[in-house]
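Case study B.
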Amino acid sequence: MALVTDIAVIPAGKERSSVIHFLVRLFREKPLGAAGGVIFILFLLCGMFADFLAPYGMNQISPRNRLLPPSWTYPFGTDNLGRDMLSRCLYGAQLSVIIGFSAATLATVVSVAIGILSGYLGGKIDLVTQRFVDAWMSFPALIILLVVVSVLGPGLPQIIITLGLLLGIGGSRIIRSAVVSVRENMYVHAAQSIGASTRRILWRHILPNIMPPIIVLFTTQVGVVILVESSLSFLGLGVPPPTPTWGGMLSGSGRTFMFQGPWLALAPGLCLTVVVYATNVFGDALRDLLDPRMRGSR
Amino acid sequence: MIPVVTLIGLQAPILIGGSVIVEQIFVIPGMGLLLLDAINQRDYPIITSVSLVIGLSVMLINLAVDLSYGLLDPKVRYR
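Model:
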């Protein structure tokens, strides 16, 4: 009896040291990916603490200081209404963090739900679901998004829900393939043969073992969501104007005053490029480290 | 050759979706700009028809890709 409890107890320190070990491996084996991760976390912090970090208000205008080039007072310059670009970029990061993380979470939840059911149950359900996913994926993502936003009207919740469902259904393919390969393992057959319920098998045996692809899917989704959201704002269908978004800053004052003040387009454009590049590199590095099957493939 | 053709089928929706942005930037009066204008004016019949045409064209491209496998590789047969 005592022996059983001895085995069952997992030392609390063990978990933490494996996380640190993983981080050390990330920095040693994938320096570029680690740099991406650092930028990703910086972006997250910038978004979370935009209210404290921003030197000026997001819509605080000062007509005397309009279209100033980057200087120490205004590190990213000012726009055509004298608003500080650095503050606007920080508030844009806040919005990107909100949309990026909530839509990516929704997308991951949807793709795990669809992928795990269709992959584990198989048979007719799998066939029908996968044909539906095929049809969904063959349609241009941006067009679906434009049409849905045109019906529901622009706004934060609509964008999050649409983006989440849109990417979630496409991403379910990755989860499904992971589930199909995990399903054939001996421990799943063992669980089935001792009569474990489907829910228990899915929750206790399949889900923990497809965690690596889920984490990788989430990180890549964040980058995709940020990019799609900014193209939506660029087209004027994102979050309505007074709120600064990177895409909206690019298309609004950035495009009109591109020749008087190139920093208007450069600042949000660079933010967007650096963050999305960092997310992609970070996601790739995570995939290489977490998913041994994909190791070495680029 | 087959992977290249498959890639064409996968890229087609992305290309067509991207046309909306490119047409907005360079003011090309194409289908993307038509869709965008229709959305801004809440012109639902045009939105529906443009998305129908785009969906149909993507479907046809994918069908052509699938059929071209048979032409490129005689080992592939459709019954």
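Confidence is low (pLDDT under 50) at residues 1-8 of chain A. The remaining cases will be described in the next quarterly update.
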